Amino acid sequence: MLLEAGADVGLVEAALLGHAEVTQTLLTAGADLNREEMGKALRWAAVGGHANVVTLLLDGGAEIDAADEYGRTALMEAALHGRLTAMRLLLERGADPQAATRRGGTALMDSVRSNARCNREAAELLLAYGARADARSGSGWTPLKLACLWGHAEVVEVLLRHGADPNAFTDAEVMEREEGCSTTNAL
User: Quick check: 152 and 183 in contact, CB under 8 A?
Assistant: First the structure.
């Protein structure tokens, strides 16, 4: 209805909606597209799982690991929303599976806590491309602890096979700095 009412569609909106034609037109026209806008469009295309738009944006010069102010990348967004095709494309094109947010969160952690039904496949894909099963957030969360918290037994099995430490817990120093941090191991 908004489009029919004449709402303006910029690159970010076109990417979010998965409008490949509009995205291509804007890229070809050389609209005033800065790095920040390109990165934002890439992240929103990944949220929507629009692999064709992700491809257009990457081919148009978007930085694959462009992060927002919190350090979130397109790969993290695709992982959080269970967008396997977009994840695979980003990884094949060189996205960093070990990139971390300002708080230490990773795409693997996002894939584990996703409400999507593809948690195991997403975790396996990220691990195959070099994600660390033993990564830790700033407050001590690991992919394994998140998988246990969310009840994803199939992901627990995958992570253990890839060397996740079932006894990892938050360091005492972190506990003093971070309110709400995890103080237990995966069990």
Answer: no
